[in-house]
Design goal:
Blueprint (H helix, E strand, L loop, with lengths): L3 E2 L10 H13 L9 H21 L6 E4 L2 H15 L4 E4 L5 H12 L4 E4 L10 H10 L4 E4 L13 H10 L3 E4 L19 E5 L10 E5 L25 H16 L1 H22 L4 E2 L13 E5 L4 H13 L2 E2 L4 E4 L2 E4 L1 H5 L4 H5 L1 E5 L6 H16 L1
Parallel strand pairs: 1-11, 3-4, 3-5, 5-6, 6-7
Antiparallel strand pairs: 2-8, 7-8, 9-10, 10-14, 12-13
Helix pairs in contact: 1-7, 2-7, 3-4, 8-12, 9-12
Bound molecules: pyridoxal-5'-phosphate (PLP).
Pyridoxal-5'-phosphate binds next to helix 3.
Length: 382
């Protein structure tokens, strides 16, 4: 049976070069980076080189890159730290952020520590930036704005430069969850006045369980995880050296190949859209995902004209045909519940329940798209 992977927004396979680097690192860099002997120093120098590589590509200072266990920890570190250590009393966000952002914010609001304000969004998932400006100019409460660059379900892109400028003009802090963006888009942090970013290596063909936070030097956030003095006191715990070196390799390769892979994947996405339009009348494209200017090149979220029974079985049946994609909704107790993102877009129940997310990478081919659409048509004909 074919094995087709269209779920790269969930996670990506490791590049072979990354596996090789990790393998070598586990052999050669097994020392504890906090040890002062040669084994420790060797591991430490690998970790510090990785920090420098990542910082240089992003236009950051190495001390602004803090290694974490991934995107969730980085988002939590920044959100809790801004409130606890930087005096943030109000957070402005949207209801379509990832749960790694929404849940800590709801926790802080429920404990009475912040006022939480949700911006209106349009039916493509774009936040109302006029409302943001108005909120920031009306009140001088110390505010954190938290808006993701690439929405992981519908792929909608935020104009981060514009938001960063609005925040700077109004003395607000700006955090962007860039977990779906780092490794897919270039960043120059010397030019964009953004305060905090987050990344996860497994979204750009690196290992799981490792990522980083970018925290601008002027923001003295205390650690979320306390203990030893690793990460210059920002994050305690012995570093996962092989994961960090694997992330560095994945990061370097992502940026070396970025333009070429972006063109290739954009072409695949266009082909997918054109084929769906011509072969499945009534297909709907969710968010802004059919607009290459307003959405990321990797994510395609579509709703097919399905009966309720077809909708319930679609993902399972695609899986049976060897196709891995994601429903864009959580299936609980035999009934489908639209994801929080699609619910917030105010789509009708059928559109939200029938949504499927295909997320692409350079490893995909057009014949996989043809096969997938053949299978979709066959399943819809049943
Ligand atoms: C936008 C976004 N933020 C945060 C996360 C969480 O990252 P991690 O799985 O590395 O904790 C994800 C992962 O799906 C994501 O897509």
């Amino acid at each position: 049976m074919k094995q087709i992977y269209f779920d790269h927004a969930a996670t990506t396979p490791l590049r072979p070069e990354v596996i090789e680097v990790m393998h070598q690192a586990m052999i050669a860099h097994f020392g504890n980076p906090s040890s002062t002997h040669q084994f420790g120093r060797q591991a430490k120098s690998g970790v510090e080189q990785a920090r420098k590589t990542i910082a240089a590509q992003l236009g950051a200072h190495p001390s602004e890159i803090i290694f974490t266990s991934g995107g969730t920890e980085a988002d939590n570190m920044i959100i809790y730290g801004s409130v606890r250590d930087l005096g943030v009393q109000r957070v402005i966000t949207t209801a379509i952020e990832h749960h790694a952002v929404l849940h800590p914010l709801e926790d802080l609001r429920d404990r009475g520590l912040i006022e939480l304000v949700f911006l209106s969004i349009d039916d493509s998932g774009n936040p109302d930036l006029n409302q943001l400006t108005a909120l920031l100019t009306q009140e001088s409460t110390k505010t954190l704005v938290s808006l993701m660059h690439v929405n992981n379900e519908i792929g909608t892109l935020l104009d981060v430069s514009r938001v960063a400028q609005i925040c700077r003009d109004n003395n607000a802090l700006f955090h962007s969850d860039t977990v779906q963006s780092i490794g897919h888009f270039t960043w120059n942090l010397q030019e964009i006045p953004i305060d905090f970013l987050t990344a996860a290596a497994h979204k750009f063909h690196g290992p799981k369980g490792v990522g980083f936070a970018f925290i601008r030097k002027k923001h003295p956030i205390k650690p979320l995880i306390s203990g030893g003095a690793q990460e210059r006191g920002f994050r305690a715990g012995t570093e996962s050296v092989h994961s960090i070196l694997g992330m560095e390799k994945a990061f370097v390769l992502a940026y070396q190949n970025l333009e070429q892979e972006k063109d290739y994947i954009s072409g695949l996405k266009k082909y997918f859209i054109d084929q769906l339009k011509s072969r499945i009348p009534g297909v709907q494209f969710n968010g802004a995902c059919s607009d290459p200017e307003k959405s990321t090149y990797t994510v395609l979220n579509v709703s097919l004209p399905l009966t309720t029974d077809q909708s319930l079985m679609m993902l399972f049946q695609l899986d049976m045909q060897g196709i891995a994609c994601s429903k864009g909704s959580a299936c609980q107790s035999g009934s489908t519940h639209a994801s929080h993102v699609l619910t917030e877009l105010r789509y009708d129940t059928a559109r939200a329940a029938n949504a499927i997310r295909f997320s692409l990478a350079h490893t995909n081919q057009t014949d996989e798209i043809d096969y997938t659409i053949d299978q979709l048509c066959a399943l819809m004909a049943q």
